[in-house]
């Protein structure tokens, strides 16, 4: 039975060291900075985690303030449905949306997928990320991960044909997907796509900057191209249909699981392939995203594998297999 006590919202910034260095075209970092929202009613607490992203003008401090500004609305009974209009898409809404779903599931005595009437997620193979570096450094890192069936390779523009060739030589059996993080240009786009196709890369993610990707509709794409920074929620899907073959759904972009699931349905209707992705974060960020995996061709939920330590009751990873969350973590 649901307690009659008013719900209370608390939020905080947490930091988790990364194992080594995580490098993409925009730079490197040594820790994951997350913001956690907790909504409590009586003895039950729902949790959600987000990763504010500077690329979208977000900071941990501003995200924390945005969550704290919702305390009165939560005490007034704001639920996850009303939340969609009360906050815009982004990291802050993601943390709160997932916390509200977690609490609602606990109060109903249901798992989150049953509560939301979604398919039960099973174990899935997640990509494992190889950071950007020199061809030699990337080949060395790839060789250590070559037993994994799916690798995600971070590229950065100049010199990418040499990088991807070195990676393929180090992992001849792995399926490769590539993430350029907007680093390619019109001048090297077709050369880099061809280099990826030549070594059997399955998919290239966000080769050109968002808003400057019109050329993708004009060229012959020799392999599937996936939108990431160019796509955020349902409203951004239709204009991209001629440019992209797939979309990367991340809860920090959509503003939570509620919109992510609706976006997955809309993307399928438009015949996009779906990737479910993540930022570098703990299992608390990955757990809600597992509900999108039944619709996903590609699963990229390796964030906790890149950390020096995960939080307690984290997701179970068996090499590259990731399993649905236990209720003690989320949902």
Series of secondary-structure elements, N-terminal to C-terminal: EEEHHHHHEEHEHEHEEEHHEHEEE
* Strands, total number: 14
- Spatial order of the strands forming the largest sheet: 5-6-7-8-9-10-11-12
How would you classify the helix and strand content by structural class?
alpha/beta
Rg over CA atoms: 20 Å
Total of DSSP H or I helical runs spanning 4+ residues: 11
Our count of domains comes out at 2
CATH architecture heading of the largest domain? Alpha-Beta Barrel
Helical content, roughly? 25-40%
Instruction: Round the mean pLDDT to the nearest integer and report it.
Output: 95
Q: Report the CATH topology name of the largest domain.
A: TIM Barrel
In terms of DSSP E residues, the strand content is 15-25%
Molecular structure report:
The chain is an alpha/beta fold and 331 residues long. It has two domains: 8-115, Enolase-like, domain 1 (2-Layer Sandwich), CATH 3.30.390.10; 124-322, Alpha-Beta Barrel (TIM Barrel), CATH 3.20.20.120. The chain is 30% helix and 23% strand. It contains eleven helices and 14 strands. The strands form three sheets. It has an eight-stranded parallel beta sheet with strand order 5-6-7-8-9-10-11-12. A three-stranded antiparallel beta sheet has the order 1-2-3. Strands 4-14-13 form a three-stranded antiparallel beta sheet, with no helix packed on it. It is globular. The two termini are 17 Å apart. The model has no long low-confidence stretch (mean pLDDT 95).
